[in-house]
Write a structure and sequence with these properties.
The radius of gyration is 20 Å and the shape is globular. Helices cover 47% and strands 12% of the residues. The protein has ten helices and seven strands. The strands form two sheets. The protein has a four-stranded antiparallel beta sheet with strand order 5-6-4-7, with helices on one face. The protein has a three-stranded antiparallel beta sheet with strand order 1-3-2. β2 and β3 form a beta hairpin. The chain folds into two domains: 206 residues, Orthogonal Bundle (Arc Repressor Mutant, subunit A), CATH 1.10.10.10; 75 residues, Alpha-Beta Plaits (2-Layer Sandwich).
């Protein structure tokens, strides 16, 4: 349950702050006073000092801008971070449906050739960002996605992350690549079977929130549980290349699991918003974002 969140060894203040910002702060105006953020993090077991230190480090890495008003500090996403959060939102909150992930796939892959970049740190940074956008590592230095919009996403990313050398982006078709992927090709650094296990673990952990009749946690626990749900969902979704249905292995669990997770999110949201707005003086009414729609 939500109250055990801070006891999990795989949870850090840094990662929770990113989740809270993306799931709760962005829809309520995109900025928040540090004091309000500290109050939101208190139920997770994070101290005032830990939140301040984590936000300071994230700001130094280019994720947040700080506005000083007297002795108070207000945080908002930087323009570059806004683009990254938006791209992540498109994948995290995408509900399965008749157009998901790509039933009309014609076998075309988008390739990004990163090994032309001599700067290994820049190459690795771009590869990591492309993985979060659904690209797989086809071979060392070559990223691939079976989605046509991948070329647009890659061009947008490469424009904002200049490496000094033009990075080739190409469209290609392969004879046997689909068979290799369906047979267990690594997706985002994870094999398909381990990824399937992670999807099932999501349902095991949060299925209670989508039960019928639905459980009614307190507003506090609804906020904590929804934050937990999005935190774990983000890790799985950004590791999944969203293969077209033609490449799914037998009994691929993602559509069914995501349908249940979307229901859990919607059922937790009213209480979560009430708790957020009662505890955060800077939070306005949530924007009508398209989440799981």
């Amino acid at each position: 349950m939500a109250r055990n969140f801070g006891e999990r060894p795989d949870i850090s203040a840094r990662s929770v702050l990113v989740t809270i910002f993306g799931d709760s702060v962005v829809p309520t105006g995109g900025e928040i006073w540090l004091g309000d953020l500290i109050e939101l993090c208190a139920p997770f077991g994070f101290s005032d000092r830990l939140v301040r230190t984590s936000m300071f480090r994230l700001s130094n890495e280019g994720w947040f801008e700080i506005e000083r008003v007297g002795r108070r500090s207000r945080y908002r996403l930087t323009p570059s971070a806004t683009g990254e959060f938006s791209a992540a939102d498109d994948r995290i909150y995408r509900a399965p449906g008749p157009r998901w992930p790509d039933p009309g796939w014609d076998g075309t892959w988008t390739l990004v050739i990163l090994d032309v970049l001599a700067d290994r740190a820049n190459r690795d940074r771009l590869a990591t960002t492309l993985r979060r956008r659904g690209f797989m590592e086809l071979s060392p230095g070559t990223m691939a996605t079976p989605h046509a919009e991948g070329a647009r996403s890659a061009h947008d990313l490469l424009t904002r992350h200049p490496g000094g050398v033009p990075v080739p982006v190409a469209l290609a078709r392969f004879e046997q690549l689909g068979d290799l992927v369906a047979g267990g090709w690594p997706t985002g650094g994870f094999g398909l079977e381990p990824l399937a296990a992670r999807y099932r673990a999501l349902l095991d952990r949060y299925g209670w929130a989508a039960s019928t009749p639905p459980q009614t946690p307190t507003d506090r626990d609804a906020f904590l549980a929804r934050t937990m749900l999005v935190h774990d969902l983000r890790r799985v979704r950004l590791a999944d290349a969203d293969l077209p249905s033609q490449l799914w292995p037998p009994d691929w669990p993602a559509p069914q699991v995501l349908g249940q997770i979307a229901r859990a999110y919607r059922l937790l949201s009213p209480g979560a918003w009430r708790w957020l707005q009662a505890r955060s003086g800077s939070a306005r009414a949530p924007h009508p974002l398209r989440r799981f729609s």
